[in-house]
Protein backbone atom coordinates (compact mmCIF):
# COMPACT_ATOMS: atom_id res chain seq x y z
CA UNK A 1 0.00 0.00 0.00
CA UNK A 2 1.38 3.40 -0.97
CA UNK A 3 0.24 5.47 2.02
CA UNK A 4 1.57 8.66 0.47
CA UNK A 5 -0.95 8.34 -2.36
CA UNK A 6 -3.71 7.93 0.21
CA UNK A 7 -2.48 11.03 2.08
CA UNK A 8 -2.61 12.98 -1.20
CA UNK A 9 -6.16 11.79 -1.84
CA UNK A 10 -7.16 12.89 1.68
CA UNK A 11 -5.56 16.29 1.16
CA UNK A 12 -7.41 16.72 -2.16
CA UNK A 13 -10.77 15.61 -0.75
CA UNK A 14 -10.63 17.48 2.56
CA UNK A 15 -8.93 20.62 1.28
CA UNK A 16 -6.60 20.44 4.29
CA UNK A 17 -2.99 19.28 3.88
CA UNK A 18 -2.54 15.88 5.51
CA UNK A 19 1.00 14.88 6.45
CA UNK A 20 0.92 11.18 7.28
CA UNK A 21 3.20 10.11 10.10
CA UNK A 22 2.08 6.56 10.80
CA UNK A 23 -0.49 3.94 9.78
CA UNK A 24 -1.49 1.75 12.75
CA UNK A 25 -3.43 -1.45 12.12
CA UNK A 26 -6.75 -1.67 14.02
CA UNK A 27 -8.30 -5.04 14.74
CA UNK A 28 -11.94 -5.82 15.23
CA UNK A 29 -13.54 -5.50 11.78
CA UNK A 30 -15.39 -8.56 10.49
CA UNK A 31 -15.09 -7.85 6.81
CA UNK A 32 -12.29 -5.39 6.09
CA UNK A 33 -8.86 -4.53 7.40
CA UNK A 34 -8.60 -1.13 9.06
CA UNK A 35 -5.95 1.40 10.04
CA UNK A 36 -5.67 4.61 11.94
CA UNK A 37 -3.80 7.14 9.81
CA UNK A 38 -1.99 9.51 12.12
CA UNK A 39 -1.00 12.92 10.84
CA UNK A 40 0.75 15.79 12.54
CA UNK A 41 -2.55 17.48 13.36
CA UNK A 42 -5.39 15.04 12.64
CA UNK A 43 -6.16 11.34 12.32
CA UNK A 44 -8.26 9.42 9.81
CA UNK A 45 -9.73 5.93 9.77
CA UNK A 46 -9.26 3.82 6.64
CA UNK A 47 -10.82 0.50 5.64
CA UNK A 48 -9.28 -1.68 2.96
CA UNK A 49 -10.58 -4.54 0.85
CA UNK A 50 -9.97 -6.00 -2.60
CA UNK A 51 -10.18 -3.49 -5.47
CA UNK A 52 -13.42 -5.12 -6.79
CA UNK A 53 -15.15 -4.08 -3.55
CA UNK A 54 -14.90 -0.34 -4.25
CA UNK A 55 -18.65 -0.25 -4.84
CA UNK A 56 -19.24 -1.54 -1.31
CA UNK A 57 -17.18 1.32 0.13
CA UNK A 58 -18.87 3.92 -2.08
CA UNK A 59 -22.24 2.71 -0.82
CA UNK A 60 -21.00 2.84 2.78
CA UNK A 61 -19.74 6.41 2.27
CA UNK A 62 -23.14 7.36 0.81
CA UNK A 63 -24.84 5.76 3.80
CA UNK A 64 -22.69 7.68 6.29
CA UNK A 65 -23.49 10.86 4.37
CA UNK A 66 -27.23 10.13 4.52
CA UNK A 67 -27.09 9.50 8.28
CA UNK A 68 -24.97 12.62 8.81
CA UNK A 69 -27.46 14.71 6.82
CA UNK A 70 -30.25 13.67 9.20
CA UNK A 71 -28.30 15.46 11.98
CA UNK A 72 -29.75 13.17 14.62
CA UNK A 73 -26.79 11.00 15.67
CA UNK A 74 -23.11 11.54 15.17
CA UNK A 75 -21.45 9.38 12.49
CA UNK A 76 -17.85 9.50 11.22
CA UNK A 77 -17.81 11.89 8.27
CA UNK A 78 -16.65 10.10 5.10
CA UNK A 79 -13.71 11.76 3.33
CA UNK A 80 -12.92 9.79 0.17
CA UNK A 81 -13.05 6.41 -1.51
CA UNK A 82 -10.88 4.95 -4.27
CA UNK A 83 -8.52 2.24 -5.41
CA UNK A 84 -4.81 2.21 -4.62
CA UNK A 85 -2.83 -0.65 -6.14
CA UNK A 86 -4.86 -3.81 -5.60
CA UNK A 87 -6.90 -2.34 -2.73
CA UNK A 88 -10.17 -0.43 -2.52
CA UNK A 89 -10.33 2.03 0.37
CA UNK A 90 -12.74 4.19 2.34
CA UNK A 91 -11.35 7.03 4.45
CA UNK A 92 -13.40 8.69 7.15
CA UNK A 93 -13.01 10.83 10.22
CA UNK A 94 -11.33 9.00 13.11
CA UNK A 95 -13.12 9.03 16.45
CA UNK A 96 -11.75 8.11 19.85
CA UNK A 97 -14.17 5.77 21.64
CA UNK A 98 -14.25 4.54 25.20
CA UNK A 99 -16.42 7.23 26.73
CA UNK A 100 -18.49 6.09 29.70
CA UNK A 101 -20.75 9.13 29.97
CA UNK A 102 -23.75 8.20 32.11
CA UNK A 103 -26.35 9.88 29.91
CA UNK A 104 -25.08 8.43 26.63
CA UNK A 105 -27.59 5.55 26.48
CA UNK A 106 -30.56 7.90 26.99
CA UNK A 107 -29.21 10.36 24.45
CA UNK A 108 -28.70 7.57 21.96
CA UNK A 109 -32.30 6.33 22.45
CA UNK A 110 -33.69 9.81 21.81
CA UNK A 111 -31.38 10.46 18.89
CA UNK A 112 -32.20 7.16 17.18
CA UNK A 113 -35.94 7.87 17.46
CA UNK A 114 -35.31 11.28 15.90
CA UNK A 115 -33.26 9.71 13.12
CA UNK A 116 -36.12 7.30 12.44
CA UNK A 117 -38.46 10.29 12.16
CA UNK A 118 -36.73 11.13 8.87
CA UNK A 119 -39.16 9.48 6.49
CA UNK A 120 -39.76 9.10 2.75
CA UNK A 121 -42.70 7.94 0.68
CA UNK A 122 -41.05 4.70 -0.53
CA UNK A 123 -39.20 1.80 1.06
CA UNK A 124 -35.65 1.20 -0.20
CA UNK A 125 -32.89 3.55 -1.22
CA UNK A 126 -31.38 5.18 -4.33
CA UNK A 127 -28.66 2.51 -4.48
CA UNK A 128 -27.96 -1.06 -3.44
CA UNK A 129 -25.43 -1.69 -0.68
CA UNK A 130 -24.16 -4.62 1.39
CA UNK A 131 -25.04 -6.21 4.69
CA UNK A 132 -21.76 -7.61 5.98
CA UNK A 133 -20.27 -8.78 2.70
CA UNK A 134 -23.62 -9.86 1.19
CA UNK A 135 -25.32 -7.68 -1.48
CA UNK A 136 -28.38 -5.86 -0.13
CA UNK A 137 -30.80 -4.78 -2.91
CA UNK A 138 -32.72 -1.57 -2.22
CA UNK A 139 -34.85 -0.95 -5.34
CA UNK A 140 -37.64 1.29 -3.99
CA UNK A 141 -41.14 -0.11 -3.49
CA UNK A 142 -44.37 1.36 -2.16
CA UNK A 143 -45.31 -1.81 -0.37
CA UNK A 144 -43.21 -2.85 2.62
CA UNK A 145 -44.15 -6.52 2.56
CA UNK A 146 -43.35 -6.71 -1.12
CA UNK A 147 -40.01 -5.02 -0.39
CA UNK A 148 -39.20 -7.40 2.45
CA UNK A 149 -40.19 -10.45 0.42
CA UNK A 150 -38.20 -9.48 -2.68
CA UNK A 151 -35.15 -7.76 -1.20
CA UNK A 152 -34.71 -9.11 2.29
CA UNK A 153 -36.24 -12.42 3.44
CA UNK A 154 -36.85 -13.96 0.00
CA UNK A 155 -33.45 -12.79 -1.23
CA UNK A 156 -31.57 -14.35 1.71
CA UNK A 157 -33.56 -17.58 1.34
CA UNK A 158 -32.48 -17.77 -2.31
CA UNK A 159 -28.85 -17.29 -1.27
CA UNK A 160 -29.30 -19.99 1.39
CA UNK A 161 -30.62 -22.35 -1.26
CA UNK A 162 -27.61 -21.65 -3.48
CA UNK A 163 -25.37 -22.32 -0.49
CA UNK A 164 -27.01 -25.71 0.04
CA UNK A 165 -29.03 -24.72 3.14
CA UNK A 166 -31.26 -27.43 4.67
CA UNK A 167 -34.48 -28.00 2.71
CA UNK A 168 -36.51 -27.93 5.96
CA UNK A 169 -35.34 -24.33 6.54
CA UNK A 170 -36.08 -23.31 2.95
CA UNK A 171 -39.51 -24.90 3.08
CA UNK A 172 -40.46 -23.22 6.36
CA UNK A 173 -39.07 -19.93 5.04
CA UNK A 174 -41.42 -20.19 2.06
CA UNK A 175 -44.35 -20.81 4.41
CA UNK A 176 -43.37 -17.75 6.42
CA UNK A 177 -43.26 -15.59 3.30
CA UNK A 178 -46.77 -16.77 2.50
CA UNK A 179 -48.02 -16.02 6.01
CA UNK A 180 -46.13 -12.80 6.75
CA UNK A 181 -49.06 -10.43 5.98
CA UNK A 182 -50.65 -11.79 9.18
CA UNK A 183 -47.86 -10.11 11.19
CA UNK A 184 -49.02 -6.75 9.86
CA UNK A 185 -52.81 -6.90 10.21
CA UNK A 186 -53.03 -3.81 12.42
CA UNK A 187 -49.65 -2.19 11.89
CA UNK A 188 -48.62 0.02 8.98
CA UNK A 189 -44.84 0.52 8.76
CA UNK A 190 -43.57 3.79 7.37
CA UNK A 191 -40.28 4.29 5.47
CA UNK A 192 -37.84 5.58 8.11
CA UNK A 193 -34.15 6.29 7.64
CA UNK A 194 -32.42 3.18 9.05
CA UNK A 195 -28.84 2.38 9.98
CA UNK A 196 -29.56 -1.14 8.77
CA UNK A 197 -26.88 -3.05 10.72
CA UNK A 198 -27.32 -1.70 14.23
CA UNK A 199 -25.73 -4.28 16.47
CA UNK A 200 -23.70 -3.11 19.48
CA UNK A 201 -20.39 -3.47 17.58
CA UNK A 202 -21.45 -0.61 15.31
CA UNK A 203 -22.13 1.79 18.18
CA UNK A 204 -19.69 3.57 20.47
CA UNK A 205 -19.53 6.48 22.86
CA UNK A 206 -16.81 9.02 22.14
CA UNK A 207 -14.46 10.18 24.85
CA UNK A 208 -16.57 13.34 25.05
CA UNK A 209 -19.61 11.17 25.87
CA UNK A 210 -21.33 11.44 22.50
CA UNK A 211 -23.09 8.41 20.96
CA UNK A 212 -21.72 7.57 17.52
CA UNK A 213 -22.82 4.92 14.98
CA UNK A 214 -20.84 3.57 12.03
CA UNK A 215 -20.59 0.74 9.46
CA UNK A 216 -24.19 1.23 8.23
CA UNK A 217 -26.28 -0.59 5.61
CA UNK A 218 -28.67 2.34 5.07
CA UNK A 219 -32.15 2.19 3.55
CA UNK A 220 -35.64 3.49 4.29
CA UNK A 221 -37.67 0.84 6.08
CA UNK A 222 -39.68 -0.10 9.16
CA UNK A 223 -37.86 1.30 12.20
CA UNK A 224 -38.67 -1.95 14.02
CA UNK A 225 -36.01 -3.62 11.84
CA UNK A 226 -33.31 -1.36 13.37
CA UNK A 227 -34.67 -1.85 16.89
CA UNK A 228 -34.80 -5.63 16.44
CA UNK A 229 -31.15 -5.75 15.50
CA UNK A 230 -30.14 -3.84 18.65
CA UNK A 231 -31.57 -6.82 20.58
CA UNK A 232 -30.02 -9.54 18.42
CA UNK A 233 -26.51 -9.60 19.85
CA UNK A 234 -27.27 -7.69 23.06
CA UNK A 235 -25.32 -4.77 24.38
CA UNK A 236 -27.85 -1.93 24.62
CA UNK A 237 -29.14 -0.90 28.03
CA UNK A 238 -32.72 -0.60 29.25
CA UNK A 239 -32.16 3.17 29.49
CA UNK A 240 -31.66 3.24 25.74
CA UNK A 241 -34.98 1.44 25.08
CA UNK A 242 -36.83 3.58 27.64
CA UNK A 243 -35.57 6.79 26.03
CA UNK A 244 -36.42 5.55 22.53
CA UNK A 245 -39.96 4.63 23.59
CA UNK A 246 -40.46 7.93 25.37
CA UNK A 247 -39.51 9.79 22.21
CA UNK A 248 -41.45 7.60 19.77
CA UNK A 249 -43.19 4.54 21.26
CA UNK A 250 -42.97 1.22 19.47
CA UNK A 251 -46.14 -0.69 18.55
CA UNK A 252 -46.99 -3.62 20.85
CA UNK A 253 -46.72 -6.08 17.92
CA UNK A 254 -42.99 -5.35 17.78
CA UNK A 255 -42.38 -8.15 20.28
CA UNK A 256 -43.39 -10.77 17.69
CA UNK A 257 -42.09 -8.95 14.61
CA UNK A 258 -38.60 -8.51 16.04
CA UNK A 259 -37.91 -12.22 15.48
CA UNK A 260 -39.20 -11.82 11.93
CA UNK A 261 -36.79 -8.94 11.28
CA UNK A 262 -33.82 -10.63 12.93
CA UNK A 263 -34.32 -13.73 10.83
CA UNK A 264 -32.91 -11.67 7.96
CA UNK A 265 -29.64 -11.16 9.81
CA UNK A 266 -29.37 -14.77 10.99
CA UNK A 267 -29.95 -16.01 7.43
CA UNK A 268 -27.29 -13.56 6.32
CA UNK A 269 -24.91 -14.99 8.94
CA UNK A 270 -25.62 -18.45 7.58
CA UNK A 271 -24.91 -17.18 4.07
CA UNK A 272 -21.64 -15.57 5.17
CA UNK A 273 -20.36 -18.07 7.74
CA UNK A 274 -22.46 -21.26 7.45
CA UNK A 275 -22.51 -23.55 10.47
CA UNK A 276 -25.08 -23.42 13.25
CA UNK A 277 -26.82 -20.33 11.91
CA UNK A 278 -29.04 -22.54 9.70
CA UNK A 279 -30.44 -24.27 12.78
CA UNK A 280 -30.92 -20.93 14.54
CA UNK A 281 -32.74 -19.51 11.49
CA UNK A 282 -34.96 -22.58 11.35
CA UNK A 283 -35.87 -22.32 15.04
CA UNK A 284 -36.77 -18.64 14.59
CA UNK A 285 -38.92 -19.50 11.57
CA UNK A 286 -40.70 -22.27 13.50
CA UNK A 287 -41.36 -19.83 16.34
CA UNK A 288 -42.89 -17.30 13.95
CA UNK A 289 -45.01 -19.92 12.18
CA UNK A 290 -46.35 -21.12 15.52
CA UNK A 291 -47.06 -17.52 16.64
CA UNK A 292 -49.06 -17.08 13.44
CA UNK A 293 -51.16 -20.22 13.79
P1 LIG B 1 -15.98 -3.77 9.27
O1 LIG B 1 -16.61 -3.08 8.10
O2 LIG B 1 -14.78 -4.56 8.87
O3 LIG B 1 -16.97 -4.58 10.10
P2 LIG B 1 -16.09 -1.57 11.18
O4 LIG B 1 -16.59 -0.41 10.42
O5 LIG B 1 -17.10 -2.26 12.06
O6 LIG B 1 -15.38 -2.64 10.22
O7 LIG B 1 -14.83 -1.10 12.06
C1 LIG B 1 -14.02 -1.99 12.79
C2 LIG B 1 -13.69 -1.41 14.17
O8 LIG B 1 -12.94 -0.20 14.02
C3 LIG B 1 -14.95 -1.01 14.92
O9 LIG B 1 -15.36 -2.02 15.80
C4 LIG B 1 -14.56 0.25 15.67
O10 LIG B 1 -14.10 -0.07 16.96
C5 LIG B 1 -13.43 0.82 14.87
N1 LIG B 1 -13.86 1.98 14.05
C6 LIG B 1 -14.77 1.95 13.03
N2 LIG B 1 -14.89 3.16 12.47
C7 LIG B 1 -14.04 3.97 13.14
C8 LIG B 1 -13.69 5.36 13.03
N3 LIG B 1 -14.25 6.14 12.09
N4 LIG B 1 -12.79 5.86 13.90
C9 LIG B 1 -12.22 5.07 14.84
N5 LIG B 1 -12.49 3.76 15.00
C10 LIG B 1 -13.39 3.21 14.16
Furnish the topology, listing elements before pairings.
Layout: H1 3-14, E1 20-26, E2 33-39, E3 43-50, H2 54-70, E4 78-84, E5 87-93, H3 104-116, E6 129-131, E7 134-136, H4 144-162, H5 167-179, E8 192-194, E9 203-205, E10 211-213, E11 219-221, H6 223-232, H7 238-247, H8 254-273, H9 277-292
Antiparallel strand pairs: 1-2, 2-3, 3-5, 4-5, 6-7, 8-11, 9-10
Helix pairs in contact: 3-7, 4-5, 4-8, 5-9, 6-8, 8-9
Summarize the structure.
The protein has 9 helices and 11 strands. The chain has helices spanning 3-14, 54-70, 104-116, 144-162, 167-179, 223-232, 238-247, 254-273, 277-292, and strands at 20-26, 33-39, 43-50, 78-84, 87-93, 129-131, 134-136, 192-194, 203-205, 211-213, 219-221.
Structural commentary:
- It is a single chain.
- By secondary structure, this protein is α+β, with helices and mostly antiparallel strands.
- The protein has two domains: 3-93, Phosphorylase Kinase, domain 1, CATH 3.30.200; 104-292, Aminoglycoside 3'-phosphotransferase, Chain: A, domain 2 (Alpha-Beta Complex), CATH 3.90.1200.10.
- It is 44% helix and 18% strand.
- The protein has nine helices and eleven strands.
- The chain has helices spanning 3-14, 54-70, 104-116, 144-162, 167-179, 223-232, 238-247, 254-273, 277-292; strands at residues 20-26, 33-39, 43-50, 78-84, 87-93, 129-131, 134-136, 192-194, 203-205, 211-213, 219-221.
- A five-stranded antiparallel sheet has the order 1-2-3-5-4, with helices on both faces. A two-stranded antiparallel sheet has the order 6-7.
- α3 (104-116) packs parallel to α7 (238-247), α5 runs parallel beside α9 and α8 packs antiparallel against α9 (277-292).
- Bound molecules: adenosine-5'-diphosphate (ADP).
- Residues 26, 28-32, 34, 45, 47, 76, 92-95, 201-202, 214-215 line the site of adenosine-5'-diphosphate.
- The site of adenosine-5'-diphosphate (ADP) has 18 residues, from β3 and β5.
Amino acid sequence: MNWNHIAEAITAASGEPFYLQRADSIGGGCINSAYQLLGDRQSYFIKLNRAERLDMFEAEADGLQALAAARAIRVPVPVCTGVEGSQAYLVMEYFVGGGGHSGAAENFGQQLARMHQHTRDKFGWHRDNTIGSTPQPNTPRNDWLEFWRAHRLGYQLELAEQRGGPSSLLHKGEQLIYMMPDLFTDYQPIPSLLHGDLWSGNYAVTRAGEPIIFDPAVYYGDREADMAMTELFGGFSQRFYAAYNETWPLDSGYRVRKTFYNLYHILNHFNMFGGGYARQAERMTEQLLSDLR
